[in-house]
Amino acid sequence: MKENADFKTLCVHAGELKDEQHGGAISPLYMSSSYAFNDVETNQYPRYFNTPNQRGLAIKIAALEGAEAGMIFGSGMAAISTALLSHLKFGDHVIFQDDLYGGTRNFIKHEFPKYGIQYSFTAGLTATDFENEIQDNTKGIYIETPSNPTLKIIDLKAISTLAKNTDLWTMIDNTFASPVNQNPMAFGIDVVLHSATKYLGGHSDICAGAVLGSQKVIDRVFESAKNLGGSLSDYTVWLLERSIKTLFLRVQAQNQNAQLLAEFLADQDWIDNVYYPGLPQHPDHEIAKKQMKGFGGMLTFDLAPHLDCKQFLLGLKLIKPTMSLAGIESTALSPRLTSHALLTETERIAQGITPQMVRFSTGIEAIEDLKEDLIQSVNQQH
Ligand SMILES: *Cc1c(COP(=O)(O)O)cnc(C)c1O
C-alpha cells in the first residue's frame, strides 16, 4: 500500500496478512501458540503480543491513529492498566481529569495505593486546571475527550503544550471519538488508548483494547505487558480486523444520525438539555471543530422533569436500554442508575450527571425509526 493512504483504504487494507499458500482474499488466521524457535528474533508467542495476526492488527490500528506502533490487548482495561503501570512506579504522581470512565476510576482508586502511586483529579477541564495539580513528582497527564457522559471537550493542543513545557507524558482514552473522528497524536499527545470493545469492534460482540504510540512508548509498555499477560486471543484479533474494515462507514453513519438526532431533540419540549459537541450551542463546539474530524455517535440529553427516566428507557421498543455503546444498534442508559451508579451523589453532581440524564449511543438504523421510537416512549407517559 502506498504511503499516506486515505483513512478509508487504511481501514480495509493496513496490516493485512497475505495468504501465500492459497491466495485467499482475506488475512489467514494463525491460531498457533507455539512457533519454531528462532534465535535471531524474539520467539513468537501470544503473550509476547507478536503472533502474525496480533502484529498485523497492531499495524492496522497504529496506521489509523497515525502512530509508529501499537499493541492489542484482551480488553480496554487491560490496555489502560498496562499502559499506566508501565509508565509509573512507587512514589510517582499522575493527573487525571475528574470525569473519567468508571472502570478507569475504579482501577486508580483500588490499585494505585497498593503500589504507592499518587494521583489527583482535576477541578475542571482547562489546561490551567491540569497545571494547578502539578507536583514535583508528577510524571504524566491522563485525559478522555469527549468525556463520558456529558461529552465535554478538552483542548488537546493546550494539554500537550503544557505537558511538553513541564516534561510530562500524556495519555488519552480515545474510545468515544474513535480514530475516525479524532487522532490525538496529531495534536502532540504521546499515548492513545482504545477500548476496542466499542467503535473498533462496533458490533457488540468483541472485548479488546489497544495502545498506540511511538516505538519507544510501545517497547516500554511491552516490558510490563508481557508480565501482566493481558494479550488477546488470535481468533478475536482476526474478528476485530474484519470489523475495522467497515469502521469508517459505520462511524460516518453514526456521526450523521447523532447530529440529526441532537438537532431534533434540541427542539423538543420534552427535552431540557442536549449535550452534543456538534451543536453550535455546545460550550466546547469551537474546540471540537478544531480537533475533531466528526462529532461522534455518542449524545446525551436530559428529559424534562415531568418524565420518569426509568419508564422512558423501559418504554423504548427498537432502542435497547443496555450498558454497551458504539455498536451498530442504538442503545440508551441512565448514567445515574448504571454506568455511574458507583459514584456518590456529590461526585455525580460535580460531573454534571443529572437524574433525568440519558446517554445515547447512536446506531446506523434509519433516523425516522429512531425518532419514532423515542416519541412513542414519551407518549406512553402522557
Ligand atoms: C468501555 C470503556 C473502557 C473499558 O473498556 P473494556 O473493553 O470494557 O475493558 C474504557 N474507556 C472507555 C471510554 C470505555 O467506554
- Structural class by helix and strand composition: alpha/beta
CATH topology tier name of the largest domain: Aspartate Aminotransferase, domain 2
Termini separation comes to: 58 Å
The main pleated sheet reads as:
7 strands, mixed
Work out the helicity level: 25-40%
CATH superfamily of the largest domain: Type I PLP-dependent aspartate aminotransferase-like (Major domain)
CATH architecture assignment name of the largest domain? 3-Layer(aba) Sandwich
The coarse overall form would be globular
pLDDT < 50 runs, ≥5 residues: none
Please give the count of helices.
Answer: 14
Strand order of the largest sheet: 1-7-6-5-4-2-3
**SSE order in H/E notation?**
HHEHEHEHEHEHEEHHHEHEHEHEH
Query: Radius of gyration from the CA trace?
Result: 21 Å
Number of domains: 2
The distinct bound ligands, ions and cofactors come out as: pyridoxal-5'-phosphate
CATH top level assignment of the largest domain: Alpha Beta
The total of beta strands comes to 11
As a percent range, the share of strand residues is: 5-15%
